[in-house]
Design goal:
The chain has 275 residues and is of the alpha/beta class. It has nine helices and 13 strands.
């Protein structure tokens, strides 16, 4: 398809990924604010569903700094929020975790845990679990091997890892940077236990749909990642639109075969999220 308008008429509400669909980490993609404005004018709710390792309030502040203000959307759900709630309520696998943790990640992700009364420790050897929100500001987001020492120390002490962002990588203003999911993949490959929340886990769509207020058959998920966005929507039983503005960056002619090879069938493919 060449534009989003026909799909807007077919659905009542929209679950929209952020990084790679709405913005590139620095600014909105061309046409996105126009599309969101048209959906708002038509009374069609939009909930942003992100694998960001932060809570919705922090994500909203970052969006506002890019000009994506709350009038463009109905709500935000994130993998960081899902981890925060699970750590707070001690649901499922989180029930067996202790209270001491080592944080692997930057300062900006601290809202995932800083109101929970847990004890942050300076070394993995003193922790009950490893909380992974992604590369930190010291070693940076470009070389995953720089994090091997802390992962090896956590493995040696038998720590489970809680991963607050299942993404492997994103594009920031055209440059690929690694995410928490890549570090979690390395940890699991070396025998570590990983607990994740976020796309493609279908459980993240339950609170998202509650925010949206629409039924699955009348809801469309929009994302740029086959592995997380499109596969996650499929697992949740929700139609998906694949946009090519993010990590895949394919020519539209090649995209259908790529989706088919992944065992996925989005209802439509667009070069970008524009009307």
């Amino acid at each position: 398809m060449t534009g989003f308008a026909p799909l807007a008429e077919r659905y009542d509400g929209f679950i929209v990924d952020l990084w790679g669909v709405v913005h590139n980490g620095v600014a909105p993609y061309p046409g996105v604010l126009d599309a969101l404005s048209r959906l708002h004018a038509a009374g069609k709710p939009v909930v942003f569903l992100s694998n960001a390792p932060r809570r919705p309030s922090g994500i909203a502040r970052a969006l506002s700094a890019m000009g994506i203000t709350p009038n463009f959307y109905t709500g935000i759900m994130s993998s960081g929020e899902a981890v925060h709630l699970a750590l707070r309520d001690r649901t499922d696998e989180f029930a067996t975790l202790g209270t001491k943790f080592y944080h692997l990640g930057p300062e900006r992700d601290r809202d995932v845990f800083d109101t929970l009364g847990l004890e942050e420790v300076p070394r993995p050897e003193h922790a009950d679990f490893l909380l992974n929100t992604g590369p930190d500001d010291l070693l940076g987001p470009h070389d995953a091997t720089l994090y091997d020492p802390v992962l090896h120390e956590a493995l040696a002490n038998g720590l489970p890892m809680v991963c607050a962002n299942p993404d492997f990588e994103v594009l920031r203003d055209g440059h690929r940077i690694i995410c928490a999911g890549l570090l979690a993949q390395t940890y699991a490959a070396q025998g570590g236990r990983v607990i994740q929340r976020g796309k493609p886990d279908p459980a993240i769509y339950t609170p998202t749909l509650a925010l949206l207020g629409t039924e699955k058959p009348r809801t469309l998920a929009i994302g740029d990642s086959l592995r997380t966005d499109i596969a996650g929507a499929k697992a949740a039983g929700i139609d998906a639109l694949w946009v090519l503005s993010g990590i895949h960056a394919l020519h539209p002619d090649h995209a259908p075969a790529e989706a088919e090879a992944a065992g996925l069938a989005p209802v439509a493919i667009l070069s970008g999220f524009s009307w």
